[in-house]
Amino acid sequence: MADHAPTETFALRVQFDTEAQQKDASTLGMWIFLVTEIMFFGGLFAVYTVYRSWYPDVFAIASSSLNEIIGALNTGVLLLSSFTMVMAVRASQLGQQKMIVIFLILTLLFGGIFLGVKAYEWNQKFEEHHIPGQAAFHLDGVLPEGQGHAQLFFSIYFAMTGLHALHMVIGVGILLTLIVQARKGRFSASYYTPVDVAGLYWHFVDIIWIFLFPLLYLIDRHLVK
Amino acid sequence: MDRFQLFPVQASTLAPEVDHLLYFLLAVAVFFTLLIFGAIFYFAIRYRRRSENELPHVQHTGYTLEILWSVIPFGLTMVMFTWGASIYFTASKPPNNAIQIYAVGKQWMWKLEHAEGQREINELHIPIGTPVRLTMASEDVIHSFFVPAFRTKQDVVPGRYSTTWFTATKPGKYHLFCAEYCGTNHSGMIGWVYVMEPMDYQNWLSGGAVEGSMAESGKKLFEQLACNNCHKDDNSGRGPVLVGLFGKQVQLVGGGSVKADEAYFRESILQPQAKIVYGFEPVMPTFQGLVTEEQLVQLVEYVKSLGPKPGTGPVDNGQKPVPEKSSTAGSTPANR
Amino acid sequence: MITAAAQERENYLNASHGLKSWFLTKDHKRIGLLYLATITLFFFIGGAFATLIRVELLTPQGNLVSSETYNKLFTMHGVMMIFFFLIPSIPAVLGNFFLPIMIGARDLAFPKLNLLSWYLLVVGGMFSLYAMLAGGVDTGWTFYTPYSTTYSNGYVIATALGIFIAGFSSILTGLNFIVTIHRMRAPGMTWFRMPLFVWAHYATSLIQVLGTPVLAVTIVLLFLERVFHLGIFDPARGGDPVLFQHLFWFYSHPAVYIMVLPAMGVVSEVISTFSRKAIFGYGFVAFSSVSIAVLGFLVWGHHLFVSGQSLFAGMVFSFLSYFVAIPSAIKVFNWTATLYKGSISFQTPMLYALGFIGLFTMGGLTGLFVAALGIDMHVTDTYFVVAHFHYIMVGGAIMGYMSGLHYWWPKMTGRMYPEAWARLSALVIFLGFNLTFFPQFILGYLGMPRRYHLYPPEFQVLNVLSTAGASVLAVGYLMPMIYFIWSLRYGKVAPVNPWGATGLEWKTSSPPPVHNFDETPVVTHDAYDYASLMAEEVEVG
């Protein structure tokens, strides 16, 4: 064991004894971070659950006003991006420098598409006057006294999809950094922890959407026709 | 009232109950405080370091001790829990014979209204020996109705009715505080509760200029808002008959039933579509924004005054009378 | 006087110089000192607000400041003390400095993240300070809706944003500690050889990691409601203000344990060292920390007994609240039992630790009062609750912090503080504290509501007593400030192990070298093994 201030390298920081220890620590760190993220979104899910159980009818109507085709499309795009992320991790494990960059760029691309579609959807909400807090707010099919509850639905919709999108934007930032580093050839079969850990984050953000999509777009939709 | 005190006056039936639990808790707390302080002082002096090279014997964990000092405190806390919960339970269940008073909190005053129509601001007159039930609403932020001499406190949350009750036992003048921080003049949202002998209370009720009882004011509103176009005394209206409704179980469209209490009336006025009475169309418009909390309680009191009252006899409105159950206090969100 | 030998020896303080070497440091020890300076500043700001509050309450009429100002004072006192002093206090200063050393590591697992955590606290603090200077905030540190979203004119957003940012500091510190404890222990440092200070920090970190994100999202929702008029808690739209309280207390109740668990860790170390005896029931004390952390998440609803939650919810939360009392009781009994047949000496850290046990016992026992539904109806939102939580947070957390600061000061700085002054200040703080807060129990039961600027005249005597105590307390807190700074220059040079303690931190030099140990230590004994420590000393000496 090196005790006297060993020279620090990118792949082995001074506080660690071995590369395996460092990789373990980074991975554990990311998992714990993801637990904090679950608690963060957990608060939102709790709010959603309470209000959905109080106002099921209005929430069903509000749900069905969202475009489930676009939602499904976006779900597909995000799943694809998770696949390319996995491929990027695999490429880095195999030390295929070029493939790392290609798959990271593909992931970035799909992430970008998701955000673009999301922006389109939000814009639709403005045109349909489905913005809570605006005097012009009106959801068809809901009685005047239910409009407040409908606003609650859209408040939750914007809070949830907004915070999810914010996580996507952060993910895009991480991907850009990784792409730059990968082009410099930083990653190899013996050191690919950043790609691995970023992959965990990306999949997590994907999984959050997998919960948001049915909760916001699909549940009870069939009741409203 | 300016005298220095160490213990608050007991002026309700609840107060001695709360205080008895307090005495028990105090006894436990004093015992353990003395035990721990005593042990620390005794050990600290008895086993003070006498030489620099002293090495005490290693003690192994005594499982008997560990179990003892886990189980005994746990047993004591369960007594505290049960005792405390039983008081809370009593304090949450207003008796059926309680007189009804309405309170509306707003920044920064308490507005109170008696069923007979007397209105007060930051003052509440009540008789001794009779349970008083308060139905409370807030016009803005959260307030809390607190009378230390009664040992009762209940938050008043906007958007719903909160309930509390007490039976005063001792004539006098007691503090009324707002206990939930509500903004700049929070500490000015105070008043007095005057507890009077029943005779004096009756005199007080009949004195002063009153525009009419709450139910009468409610009736006027009922007509102004044209509620009587649909809610008629017989079955000819488009809405359910309200006569004799209060306290009954109402059958709803889509199964289920709800008890016709204050919270239900409030919800039905603000969100008529939330619960549709079986056999009726959802045609009633909302009155949200058209009536204030004060007017609301008058309307509610009017509907309550329509029955059931002794002597009026059962009114056939297509519903089976159900034995009355007292409603829970604290109230669940009225607008579920 | 600085000996030549001490001057020559390279340590983490003299290894490099200049502002850059401090503000860009990755050394957990230097970051610990950065935190120390930062939170000391925040403590005295919060303390200044407290002083103004107490002076104002000398008279019932409120003739020092306006109601508006008074409301801002208690809000900012709460915000500063809780989010910017108590929550970072022991973990970020003492934990940061000693946790890696105590498990034999060269640093925390993520040193850059550690530095980032400090910057986040500073930035968060800046936002809150800005809010205070710009005009203040008057919602109470609890930010209850709809007052905070719709009615308050204060700088709610800047303050809340400050807390949000500081929250990430707390999350990242907790994350860093957990990973470090799992992955960085020295050879032979098994889980059940870890000092109880480390166990306490492990439990604390669990709460930081699991609880703080819920506060973060609650603040986000508050922000969205206030700025973008989303109506999550708006009663006018069918939203529920009480839901905000549930979310808020889901974090803020466990947050109490973020403040007090590390103090319990300190006390375990100190009691053991100064009675020269292993902590009685080590395993019970270690597990009680973890069980407090877990149970602490199940009791938040006891803050809402009169808020209008259902009767059933009230009963469940009261029932569960009593469960969390048991592990705390176990700790107190075990500490007391450790003294039995010990070899007890009364240096300053021990005085603070014994003070902690006494005051925490009183704070904990009055917790049983407020957990009882029948009593809480009467005392919630009164000074009884104020007294109760100050006994836990000041009598508990700050006494523990002071104990730890004195205990490790020689190791951190290489200097001894003046013992006589330190003992005096411990006594002054203990007496001042009790005089300040004991009268508030009586005030609370009499019915004086908290957050009252004006109060009925019959409460004046007790308020005057409390204010008198606060001035004693203020003197008590200023004294260490002065003699600690004095000791940096004039204090005696500290030996490696001034107290005869067992932890790994006492095996390295004072102050420690940059990477903590000259050689990675190999651990062969349980924690608190005084027999082998003294045997070694005989060998060496």
Please characterize this protein's 3D structure:
The complex is a heterotrimer of chains A (225), B (336) and C (541). Chain A has 6 helices and no strands. With 225 residues, chain A is mainly alpha-helical. Chain A has one domain: Four Helix Bundle (Hemerythrin (Met), subunit A) (Up-down Bundle). Chain A is elongated. The N and C termini of chain A lie far apart (70 Å). Chain B has 6 helices and 12 strands. The model of chain B is unreliable at 309-336 (pLDDT under 50). Chain B is of the alpha+beta class. Chain B is elongated and about 100 Å long. In chain B, a hairpin with a 4-residue loop joins β2 (109-114) and β3. The two termini of chain B are 44 Å apart. In chain C, 69% of the residues lie in helices and 0% in strands. Chain C has 18 helices and no strands. Chain C has helices spanning 4-8, 19-23, 28-56, 67-86, 89-102, 111-134, 147-151, 156-183, 196-228, 241-275, 282-295, 311-339, 348-371, 373-379, 383-413, 419-446, 460-490, 530-540. In chain C, α5 runs antiparallel to α9 and α8 (156-183) packs antiparallel against α9. Mean pLDDT of chain C is 93; it is low at 1-6. Chains in contact: A-B, A-C, B-C.
Describe this structure in a few short sentences.
The complex is a heterotrimer of chains A (225), B (336) and C (541). Chain A contains 6 helices and no strands. Chain A is mainly alpha-helical.
Kindly list the characteristics that best describe this protein.
heterotrimer, A: 225 residues, mainly alpha, Four Helix Bundle (Hemerythrin (Met), subunit A), elongated, C: 541 residues, Cytochrome C Oxidase, Chain A, 0% strand, globular, disordered N terminus
